[in-house]
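== Fold encoding ==
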Amino acid sequence: MIILDGTNGETFPSWTTATRPASPNAGQTGYNTTTSSLEFYNGSAWVSVSGGVTSVANGGTGQTTYTDGQLLIGNTTGNTLAKATLTAGAGVTITNGSGAITVASPLAKNTTIYGSTASGVYTAPSNTQWVKITVVGFGGTGGASTGLRGSGGGSGGVAIKWLSMSAGQTLNYSAASGSGNGSSVSSGSLSITTISANNGSDGATSAYGASKVFGGAGGTASGGDINISGIGGSPAYGSSTALSTQVGGSGGSCPGWGIGGYGFGGGTQDGIGGFGYGAGGSGALNSTAPGYGANSIIIFEAY
């Protein structure tokens, strides 16, 4: 029953969502105390027309109040929309404003490179979550001697490792020189298995007559997710061997990082140094000037 009152307005019949008329007529109107809104039946569904909460089924959101930055997320329970607020995670900032949300990540690649003979402590920069470490050993020097043919030097090994690492954590590093131990990264405040890339071996100097001398061996690698052994230098052959062409052995190339020095033939030739990083130098031909191995390198890429 509708009560008409010219002074105080009209009062409509009321019900809850559960007690709505079982067989309503199109246009039937009433006040829903569950949703605190006036609603009418449009012939197929109840539609809220004023105040309160408009349900998702009736084209609303089911919500009446919000705070800056809130989102509506679908909820299978009752096919409703639930309020949710974005929460910042590691390396991500959330700026909630009136009618807008800005998601920004200050995290970007931060690369630090250490060359041959460098040693010290690496500290992960701000916002670091992961660090990719690449360790390359020094290339071997080619063989050289007056009147003889030298074989090529081997290339250094390569180790690549991904580490979960936080800002401020440290690791110790040591980039190899042309002789002695290879390059390595070891525990600092973060405890790890040592990541090593050994130097390539030097070539030999004594190819003469019917002799053959092998090139220097490639350096080994360990402790990485990827460990690549260096490539050995090419051999040198004496003048009475089946390979009668006079030529010094080429240096071994370092996979992905350097190209070995090329072994020239004929007359007198100095050795050619390795190019890039970790590559071996070539052997000399009738010369005391060998091709020197390419430098070692250690790279930290923080993300």
The CA atoms of residues 50 and 82 lie 21 Å apart.
